[in-house]
Fold this protein.
Amino acid sequence: MRRKPPLDEAEIDALLAPLQGLRAVLIAVSGGPDSTALLAMAAKWAQRAKAPPNIAAATVDHGLRAESAGEAEAVGALCRQLGVPHRILVWNGPKPQARLQELAREARYRLLAQCAREIGAEAIVTAHHLDDQAETALFRLLRGSGVGGLKAMAENSDLGGLALLRPLLGVGKRDLVAYCEANGLDYARDASNHDPRFARTRLRPLVDRLAEEGLDAASLARLARRARQVEDALIRQTEAGEARLHLTTEGNCDAQTLFQEPIEIVQRLLTAAIARVGGKDASRIGLEKIEAMTQALARAVAEGAPFSRNVAGARVRLARGVLKVEIEPPRRAS
């Protein structure tokens, strides 16, 4: 009996259907098996698809490993074979000692977005897959994330006006490696994926252990999908609450009316108002701070007591039943 090839044309066509209708896309290719598979699949798909987008690829050389420049050149060689334009994007300057992976990720997306705009691409396409989704959900669960964090990665999100597409979130890494091997595609093996300094590296043995107990990558990805559904509902309910209260837009509202909303909606409205007034990214305001403040504020409202607390550059103040979110006043010199 003939063995079914990994990821046949029909499956690939379904995976890459979200690219149909776009004028141009930029594929992020590190040279590892995941992005190498995506690059090859997209190049071959574009040859048989009706009105496919123009496809280009880019490799970010973070300059963190001696091998990175050679890996980027190897991607360029593969792109020439596939007829795909390719650019190497270099993260220049001194590298941080702390939060290295986080800052490298920010630099990577910044460089990719700049490149996409230069070539007129409407979307950046990455090779994040099922195992990445599972790791992200578990990583955030272990760090006490709320529902918004447990949703993990979206198949389609916004990156500064560009679409960020992840068409392989339902595909396991094993299948992508098998695709590379079945099609004779060489790929890089990043030693940093085994570096215990990085949290995700330390997390992977736990992922394997949980899989043995039945909580495998597919189960964690299913948790992320369900969390996304809940998050979407909460976003709509928060928008409806804001339409009634105008806390974010006007910076004040009746406190009793606010606390008629579910506590999750209260926290989200307060976070949005604080972020707007304080000029902060709402996702950077710690959930624990918001939860503690909301609990204290709820007690003050119930008791008819005054309340004032500074959070993320804003002051949340309760007086005579009116809640105000204002710019935090300057601290007095000691």
Q: What stands out?
A: The longest strand covers residues 54-61. The domain at 9-222 is CATH 3.40.50.620 (Rossmann fold).
